[in-house]
Design goal:
There is one protein chain. The chain is α/β, with parallel strands linked by helices. Helix 4 links the parallel strand 2 and strand 3. The protein starts with 19 loop residues before the first helix and ends with a helix.
């Protein structure tokens, strides 16, 4: 009986990697980076608290697969952010981890070479280097927390974090979010269910105790105080979008009944656009109209945007990939993105200040 193997039957190997502390020492925060992240976090918190009338907009590629293209996009976004800053606070969407219903490429951290080699340590280094680059140029970043350990490597560089539709119901992710320093958005479920997100908001606002890994790489009990700046993100559902004024009015009722702040963000992509990037501008215009007509609960938007519009299949030969074109969800092109954000800024610049006075 003692010769019979009962564990690790399906484990191929266990390979130690660099600890979070070691990675942070190799790519340390600069004073400029600290100020960018701090300003980003504080601004979004003030918007959620009703102290800043601007909208915050998380905008950028569905996923990062080419660091050079991401830097190119960031340079353009920083110039636009400075241009529209009186009305819109732009945060670059920098997603390194991709949830999968079945199988597929899981993101830059998991597989930076996009060939199944899964050089995760190299992925973590690339991710931290890119986030530092953005922070040092003064552009705040937003990401999605999917893996339960990788936040120890990069979370200090995010101004905003999402918990995705597939993980909003996860108790572990709710506990993890309760310890985040940045504002955190919980998406409604893929089927459109709002209740699971409302439960997540309440759970993440409370303190928790759970087992995880600390920055030294040691297994530890993490004790949190709760995150007071969690909020709802409407991303539509399988049956219908939920960005229209009727849907938002119903969600406001649910927030009030749950004794939660009437503040929400709308994802203009995913099921709200039926995953068609050409529909994202329509969603933006609809939300703009709602705000002009008196809506006060919409405080943020999310857009999927890249240098080139659409998407492309992932191929074994990376040299065949078109520069600046998504390998995951289809995105708006840069020209459309900039034009739509300028239009939104023009239409709302004299409207949003009235929210503070009302």
């Amino acid at each position: 009986m003692l010769d019979q193997r009962i564990e690790n039957l399906h484990i191929i190997s266990e390979e130690p990697i660099i600890t979070p502390d070691r990675l942070r020492e190799r790519y340390p925060l600069t004073e400029t980076a600290v100020q960018t992240v701090f300003k980003g976090q504080q601004t979004i918190k003030q918007i959620l608290d009703g102290q800043d009338p601007r909208l915050f907009v998380v905008v950028g590629p569905c996923s990062i697969h080419d660091v050079d293209a991401a830097k190119d996009y960031a340079a353009r976004l920083k110039a636009l952010a400075d241009e529209v800053d009186d009305t819109l606070f732009l945060v670059m969407r920098v997603y390194f981890e991709k949830p999968r219903t079945r199988v597929g490429w899981q993101g830059l951290i998991s597989d930076p070479a996009m060939d199944g080699s899964a050089d995760i340590e190299s992925g973590l280094k690339l991710a931290r280097q890119l986030l530092l680059h953005l922070a040092e140029m003064g552009l705040p970043a937003a990401g999605e927390a999917l893996d339960l350990v990788t936040p120890q490597y990069v979370q200090d560089l995010f101004a905003w974090t999402a918990i995705g539709a597939r993980t909003t119901e996860s108790q572990t992710h709710r506990k993890m979010a309760s310890g985040f320093s940045c504002p955190t958005g919980f998406k409604n479920g893929t089927d459109g269910n709002i209740e699971i997100a409302l439960n997540a908001l309440k759970a993440a606002a409370q303190g928790h105790n759970f087992v995880s890994v600390d920055r030294a790489g040691q297994v530890a009990i993490i004790r949190t105080a709760g995150n007071p700046h969690c909020h709802l993100v409407l991303r539509g559902g399988l049956s219908r979008p939920n960005y229209d004024n009727v849907s938002i009015a119903l969600v406001e009722q649910q927030l009030a009944a749950a004794d939660l702040p009437l503040k929400l963000m709308v994802d203009c992509s995913h099921d709200n656009s039926q995953k068609d990037p050409a529909r994202q501008p329509f969603v933006m215009r609809d939300l703009t109209h709602q705000i002009i007509e008196g809506n006060r609960s919409i405080v943020g938007l999310m857009l999927e945007s890249n240098l080139v519009g659409g998407n492309q299949p992932l191929t074994a030969d990376r040299e065949q990939l078109q520069y600046g074109l998504s390998v995951t969800d289809a995105c708006m092109d840069w020209e459309t993105t900039a034009a739509q954000l300028r239009e939104m800024r023009q239409r709302l610049k004299d409207v949003l200040p009235g929210r503070l006075a009302a």
